[in-house]
Amino acid sequence: MIADFFHELLNLFLERGLWPSLFSIAGFLLAFFLVARLMSERRAPANTLAWLLGIVLVPYVGVPFYLLFGGRKLRQLAELKARLRPALPSGTPLEGQPPVAHTVIANGAPAPLPGNRLALLTTGEDAFATLVEHIQAARHSIHIATFILGRDETGRRIVALLAERARAGVKVRLLLDAVGCMFVRRGFVRPILDAGGEVAWFMPVRPFTSRGSANLRNHRKIAVFDHHTAIIGGHNLAREYMGPTPLKKRWRDFGAVIMGPAAVQLNEVFIADWCFASNQAPETLQAEGSAAALSPQGDSTLQVVASGPDIKGDPLYEGIVSMIQEAKHSLWVVTPYFLPDEVLLRSLLVKAHTGCAITLIIPAHSNHPITDFARRHYVRSLQEAGVRVRLFGPGMMHSKAVISDDTTAVLGSANFDPRSLFVNFEIGVFAHSTPDVLAIRAWAEEQLKQCREPGPDKLRRHRVLSGILEDLSRLLAPLL
To answer: Which of 32, 55, 261, 389 is most buried per CB count within 10 Å?
Structure first.
């Protein structure tokens, strides 16, 4: 009966030439449901407002863009990924944890684990040499997840090495983000497949499917060898990020090699991502690594924190907020894109007003000029509050790190912007051991040698136009 009613109603609209009205009604209902969904999501107010304005004022643009790019948390995805990822060891009890670790644990992340060894990767040449070394040394398995695989000499060399190890009987699994690697076809990775290795694409963009959206990208960079040694950081597998010899235009990036229990946890994150993308059962991969015991490898206490649509809360974001609020003497923020939400910005301003020495290192010119303009208001506000802002250059700085006093530091794949902290699949490692924190801060201090103070703002001469553009960019910043 209901189907007959809608069929007759549709015929009535078509017979009387009212189909434009039908589309208008359908568009209104769709916008109404999208607004209801948007309001139910856990978003920053500025982010919600930006999407609301797009959907309501420009529905023909806002509605399809939201359908394609607007998702943030997927409850079904979080539940599925939770089933794929086994229960990780809890480490030390919650009581007695430092404040930052306590905050992160309270948001569902594992507790810090002692017994790790951490070695920093501070150049693209070191990162490439270390990756090659561990690929060649792997005896059982190689798990690599990347956002970008370059179709260049770096990417080709890595593909050839992975194929070589697959032919030698090593289990090779390469996970590529479907958007970041949209131009990488199966032919490019065919040597790996022909050698017996496996390649999977994470969340391909397929309109009108419930599997995901173009907005939810796997930005994690994880490489795990034999289930017990891992490489993380900001390096993608392309010549801009790494290579065998120095390159004048190579970006400055940052990462680390981790051995010990934290590497095993990073492998579990990879397994969950891989099994989701490949539809494979996790038990096989977990059985392969059952011999990788959580044996001590060093004196580093590390905390692995995954963030993204598959995580119910925002542990990485709240951990960074806690680091800012807990800083007593010094705070360093190193990031390629600086678009803080209101909580992060206010936390930085309040901490600066208390006399805490804050240093912000950002590229003088990033690879996304629109984000450079959008950050202007935030940077100026921090400078007025006494924050030391330094511009890295020439060249692009792609490193990501936050260092709070001598107690806590975090590195990984996340940028200081809403997309990284609230939308992307990201990975971070909090270091709670003083020697590691001091080493990361020494690396940050070294970057100052290639930095300069911001010069006079040329656009301030056109105050009206500059003010309008800055207000607009601040409104759109949550969507960038």
So the answer is: 261
Residue with structure tokens 């060093």?
Answer: 298
| pTM for the full predicted model | 0.84
Place 90 in a pLDDT band, splitting at 50, 70 and 90.
Answer: very low
In the chain, pLDDT over 90 holds for what percent of residues? 61
pLDDT in tens, 418-466: 889 988 899 999 999 999 999 999 999 999 999 999 987 655 555 666 6
Contacts of 123 (CB under 8 A, 6+ apart): none
CATH code: domain 315-479 is: 3.30.870.10
- Other Cβ atoms within 10 Å of 383 Cβ, number: 15
- Decide if 109 contacts 303 (C-beta within 8 A): yes
> The tokens of 66 are what?
């939201």
Q: Which CATH superfamily is domain 76-300 in?
A: Endonuclease Chain A (3.30.870.10)
The DSSP line for 78-109 is HHHHHHHSPPPP--S-STT--HHHHHHHHTTP
